[in-house]
Amino acid sequence: MDLDVDFVRAQFPAFEVPSLAGQGFFENAGGSYTSRFVIDRLTRFYRERKVQPYGPYEASRLGGEEMDEARARLAAMLGIESDELSFGPSTTQNTYVLAQAVRQWMKPGEAIVVTDQDHEANTGPWRRLAEAGIEVREWKIDPESGHLDPSALENLLDENVRLVCFPHCSNVVGEVNSVTEITAMAHAAGAFVCVDGVSYAPHGFPDVGELGPDIYLFSAYKTYGPHQGIMVIRRALGEQLPNQAHYFNADTLYKRFTPAGPDHAQVAACAGMADYIDVLAEHHGIGGGPAERATGIHDMMRAHEVRLLQPLLDALRARNDLRLLGPDRAEGRAPTVAVALREPGIEVARRLAGHGIMAGGGDFYALRALEAMGVAPERGVLRLSFVHYTSAEEVDRLIEALEREL
Q: What pLDDT does residue 362 have?
């Protein structure tokens, strides 16, 4: 069964707003539209529950229950225990907090592995651990393709490596890295694994329990939700890392890495992300438990995106006046397509806006990846990114607009 895109789009109020009518949204990698379920929950919380949660009176009790519901339902979708999921203000901030915990946990002379394919959020905080005497080893991408070769990682692993950090998918290369294979390699060497899933999760929530990493990070505002960072920290690692929160929260796993008070309303609204997946599963006849339903929808989303992505890749590959970064086959990548041009990417994005195409240009905080591939960050790239609610007609309009403006 194919994804019912009309039904999908009906779950997003943005498609009914007059000011956005006729606009093709192709900067989803920077943040997705928000589902109606999330908007409704957020609005209800601010209207009816905007009090300190977990108190003895009704509004407070209901607010706390909604926050707990969000954690429990998202964790079940991701194939993990409820207390292995934490919320924070952003993935960048969450990673910084985790890096401070790792700084205290590791000893001088021990090593971590980072890549130059990442968004700066999953490489910069880890690289700063060198200030504490921790060895930082860089897993480098291929300068032509942007590919991260697992065999190159193997050469970096030894008994001193405690943590390996890499992206599920780069926000400019687009290639989907094999999390299961890489995690198994790192675990076999005695290392833990941190995966940045920010650029992958919008294309279908992963079963983190099946994939196997010890940390998995992504952003709710890119997965149809509010502006929150979501971090999975599996128990085996989470209980080893030093507490970063109030001392009296040290025994609660999901509080250990949230030093500030959570945004109650946005945490509660994250349950709307689970509502959305459940509604899609019911509409498409997908049953089973939360993780099974999420996986079924993940597969439908990916199949739809692959069908729409290949014509765009073919159109770009046929040109000799640009450089397509990452794979040119849709099956191996996310629909996040970065193009290096003879002019700054932002200039082309501005011209595309005149055709009703919303796209982005710049370095997208992936300076290390661009520099490794010989792309000047100050020129940046044109980035065209879409998700499962994008229609074939919108992709056709994008290709037509590119033909006119490139």
A: 98
Token pair of 281, please?
């599963």
Classify the C-alpha dihedral 47-50-54-58 as positive or negative: negative
Compute the average pLDDT of residues 325-335.
Answer: 97
Whole-model pTM?
A: 0.97
Q: How far apart are CA 22 and CA 37, in angstroms?
A: 24
Compute the half-sphere exposure of residue 281: CA atoms within 13 Å on the CB side of its CA: 22
- Alpha-carbon distance values, 8 to 270, 342, 384, 389, 390 (Å): 18, 37, 21, 6, 9
**Overall average pLDDT of the 72-81 stretch:** 98
218-245 as b/e: b if 16+ CB within 10 A: bbbbbbbbbebbbbbbbeebbeebebbb
| Per-residue model confidence as pLDDT tens digits over 254-307 | 999 999 889 999 999 999 999 999 999 999 999 999 999 999 999 999 999 999
Residue 253 has pLDDT above 90, yes or no: yes
Please provide the average confidence, as pLDDT, over all residues in the chain: 97
Average pLDDT over residues 54-62: 98
Torsion sign across C-alpha atoms 116, 79, 272, 298: positive
In 3D, which of 161, 90, 99, 166 has the Cα closest to residue 128?
Answer: 99
Using the predicted structure, report yes or no on whether residue 1 has a pLDDT greater than 90. Answer: no
